């Protein structure tokens, strides 16, 4: 089986602190894989490593068989043309209209005539159901619409790999369902491979093929949605069912209650 | 903002800027002088140039005809060597004379050029032989006092002569 | 006591080091901009757009300020020169101060607070909202696509604005002294023309504003690009743009003036 993304024994950290420790992860071609975990567990860092915006300290990150660590800037930019990224809040260019946002990459990277760019852009917008807003500015869109426009933009050049960073954050339930369906549809229609970083378990369970759970920089569990659902691992159970306390403590590690509130304080 | 409107505005802006530059160059400045090719250079030696600076005006009958290009000390003749650039539209005879003058009482110093009567005209690199240096106030006063004293002396002798 | 002195001294040292470090960082950033400027010239439309935002939109403030500054110079100059009986020279005073100093410096200061801060805020917000990251992931270098066109837009705009400022100022001086105070119009222009030199006054003024344009644009884009991606980060960067640009303009003005004076005295 060919792997679109292959990560081996990856270590990464900012400064002294190690954020990701010994990550092993594969994303087969054509599949839709979710990486789940709590906020701040290193999911977004992992995504940036796949896009080559960060470089691994140890281990290897391969995209379409190519090792990112050994690439120079030009090769990195060439690789990125094959990758579409949906950022957390869309990250649409606020100084360009919806149409120009989607057409951006076509204009930057291709020499297509303007009439063809227009047709392609409208097709992409049509795929996300937003052909009608082409002349609006991003500031005039709702959160869900902006996210969909960003999806149209991310898939503008028919990328082989699409990375989604928290696509479900801050959306109402209806937009949420729509985005989820779109992610699946785009993946299958384009024959692309998608990696989804999220903490929204319920929504992503419905659409993904495989799930990795990351906690504290380590992959703690993995499996198909059915396996995860049935999993007896305490962490996964807590995560999937949204329990407040469990293996992942509700309290951030700190001084004991007694030290902060107790009467020894005066003596210490 | 429409692309065409935007380009129109920028074009208007750039044009306005260039017009202002041209106005500064021709109406405010003196581009017609000092322009490359439009001048010829002459040299003159003065025993004293006073406060004459580079870029000081060269005037003939009060009209600006050129500028002082450079001032240096001539170690051969032990005097000041002044190079001037004159606008090519003005021609002066080779026996013209130059003097360092002051505009007003406290004004800037400039070079006054008085035309001579020769048929031959000055060319690039020629020297103006007839020069009159700047007046120095101390020497002027000294000379004045000296003259006064001499005058007084001659007056006395004349009266002495006339008395008997 | 010694502790306080030591602390104060250390603060001075730290501040000096951080200022020198920041200047170095801006210069390195300038080098990067120049290296990525190819796109700006191949697709000049990008630069034209920025000339619109930096230049055309600063036009009103520059023209109005120039008019006022010129009028004030005319009034003050007339008042002072009249007591020496040479009120005709007021044109010289207005023109020389505008060409040599006030035109380049004041327009650069206005430009830094009007356009420079806007550039910083825009780039800073693009960074904070991940637009720059997104662009990088679309295989488009934000230095080439976002930063360099804004830099060149500023570099092109400022000299034009400075020239317009000076021209407007001379017009203002003319209005006040000739039209209102009755100075002879012929004397006003002829004395001005005799005293103002194209190379040493006008061209040097333009060169100054070109240098200021490079400095302000480099600082503004640098602060935006390096701004922490938060609301406070962007507002702090905007303030820093105005403060450091103003200081840079005045310091560079001193250097350039000294250099240019030495050139012709």
CATH superfamily of the domain at 3-96 and 158-231 in chain A: P-loop containing nucleotide triphosphate hydrolases
Classification by helices and strands of chain B? alpha/beta
Question: How many helices of chain A does DSSP assign?
Answer: 10
Strand order of the largest sheet of chain A: 6-7-8-3-9-10
What does this structure look like?
The complex is a heterotrimer of chains A (268), B (164) and C (265). Chain A is of the alpha/beta class and 268 residues long. Chain A has helices spanning 43-50, 73-80, 98-109, 114-127, 143-154, 173-190, 201-207, 225-230, 234-241, 257-261, and strands spanning 3-14, 17-28, 32-36, 58-63, 66-67, 83-86, 161-165, 193-198, 210-215, 218-223. Chain A has ten helices and ten strands. In chain A, the strands form two sheets. In chain A, strands 6-7-8-3-9-10 form a six-stranded mixed β-sheet, with helices on both faces. In chain A, strands 2-1-4-5 form a four-stranded antiparallel β-sheet, with helices on one face. Chain B has 164 residues and is α/β, with parallel strands linked by helices. Chain B folds into two domains: 1-31; 39-141, no CATH class. Chain B has an eight-stranded mixed β-sheet, with no helix packed on it. The mean pLDDT of chain B is 82. Chain C has one domain (2-263). In chain C, α4 packs antiparallel against α5, α4 (59-82) packs parallel to α7 and α5 runs antiparallel to α7. The termini of chain C are far apart. Classes of the chains: A alpha/beta (268), B alpha/beta (164), C mainly alpha (265). Chain B binds chain C through residues 1, 3, 6-7, 9-10, 12-14, 16-18, 20-21, 23-25, 27-31, 34-35, 53-55, 57, 64, 67, 104, and chain C through 45, 48-49, 51-52, 55-56, 59, 86, 95, 99, 157, 159-161, 163-164, 166-168, 170, 189, 192-194, 196-202, 206, 264-265.
């Amino acid at each position: 089986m060919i792997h679109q993304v292959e990560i081996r024994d990856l270590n990464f950290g900012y400064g002294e602190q190690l954020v990701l420790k010994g990550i092993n992860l594969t994303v087969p071609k054509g599949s839709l894989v979710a990486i789940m975990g709590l906020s701040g567990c290193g999911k977004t860092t992992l995504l940036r490593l796949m896009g080559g915006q960060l470089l691994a300290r140890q281990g290897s990150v391969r995209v379409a068989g190519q090792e990112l660590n050994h690439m120079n800037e030009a090769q990195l930019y060439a690789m990125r043309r094959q990758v579409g990224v949906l950022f957390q809040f869309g990250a649409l260019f606020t100084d360009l209209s919806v149409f120009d946002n989607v057409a951006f990459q076509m204009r930057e990277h291709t020499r297509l005539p303007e009439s063809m760019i227009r047709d392609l852009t409208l097709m992409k917008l049509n795929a996300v159901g937003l052909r009608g807003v082409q002349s609006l500015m991003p500031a005039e869109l709702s959160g869900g619409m902006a996210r969909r426009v960003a999806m149209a933009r991310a898939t503008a050049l028919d990328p082989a790999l699409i990375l989604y960073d928290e696509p479900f954050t801050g959306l109402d339930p209806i937009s949420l369902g729509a985005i989820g369906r779109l992610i699946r549809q785009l993946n299958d229609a384009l024959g692309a491979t998608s990696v989804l970083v999220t903490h929204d378990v319920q929504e992503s369970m419905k659409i993904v093929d495989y799930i990795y759970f990351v906690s504290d920089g380590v992959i703690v569990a993995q499996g198909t949605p059915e396996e995860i659902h049935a999993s007896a691992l305490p962490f996964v159970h807590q995560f999937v069912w949204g329990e407040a306390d469990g293996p992942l403590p509700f309290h951030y590690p700190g001084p004991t209650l007694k030290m902060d509130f107790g009467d020894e304080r005066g003596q210490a | 903002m429409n692309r065409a409107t935007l380009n129109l505005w920028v074009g208007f802006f750039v044009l306005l800027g260039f017009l202002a530059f041209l106005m500064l160059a021709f109406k405010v400045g003196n581009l017609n002088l000092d322009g490359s090719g439009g001048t010829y250079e002459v040299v003159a030696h003065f025993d004293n140039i006073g406060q004459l600076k580079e870029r000081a005006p060269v005037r003939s009958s009060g009209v600006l005809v050129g500028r002082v290009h450079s001032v240096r000390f001539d170690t051969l003749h032990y005097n000041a060597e002044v190079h001037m650039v004159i606008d090519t539209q003005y021609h002066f005879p080779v026996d013209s004379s130059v003097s360092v003058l002051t505009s007003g009482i406290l004004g800037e110093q400039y070079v006054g050029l008085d035309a001579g009567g020769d048929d031959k005209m000055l060319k690039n690199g020629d020297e103006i032989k007839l020069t009159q240096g700047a007046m120095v106030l101390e020497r002027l006063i000294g000379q004045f006092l000296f003259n006064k004293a001499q005058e007084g002396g001659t007056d006395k002798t004349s009266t002495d002569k006339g008395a008997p | 006591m010694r502790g306080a002195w030591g602390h104060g001294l250390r603060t001075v040292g730290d501040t000096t080091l951080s200022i020198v470090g920041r200047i170095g960082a801006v210069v390195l950033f300038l080098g990067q901009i120049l290296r990525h400027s190819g796109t700006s010239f191949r697709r000049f439309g990008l630069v034209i757009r920025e000339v619109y935002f930096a230049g055309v939109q600063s036009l009103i403030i520059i023209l109005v300020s120039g008019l006022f500054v010129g009028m004030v110079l005319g009034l003050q100059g007339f008042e002072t020169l009249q007591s020496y009986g040479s009120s005709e020279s007021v044109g010289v005073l207005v023109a020389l101060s505008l060409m040599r100093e006030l035109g380049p410096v004041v327009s650069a200061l206005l430009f830094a607070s009007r356009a420079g801060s806007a550039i910083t805020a825009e780039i800073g917000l693009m960074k904070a909202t991940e637009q720059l990251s997104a662009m990088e992931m679309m295989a488009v270098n934000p230095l080439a696509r976002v930063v360099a066109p804004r830099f060149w837009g500023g570099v092109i705009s400022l000299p034009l604005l400075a020239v317009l400022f000076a021209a407007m100022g001379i017009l203002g001086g003319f209005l006040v002294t000739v039209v209102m105070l009755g100075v002879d119009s012929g004397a006003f222009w002829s004395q001005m023309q005799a005293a103002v030199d194209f190379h040493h006054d006008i061209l040097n003024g333009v060169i100054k504003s070109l240098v200021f344009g490079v400095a302000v644009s480099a600082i503004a884009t640098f602060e935006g690009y390096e701004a922490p991606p938060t609301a406070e980060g962007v507002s702090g960067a905007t303030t820093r743009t105005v403060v450091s640009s103003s200081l840079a303009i005045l310091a560079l003005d001193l250097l350039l003036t000294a250099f240019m004076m030495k050139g012709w005295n």
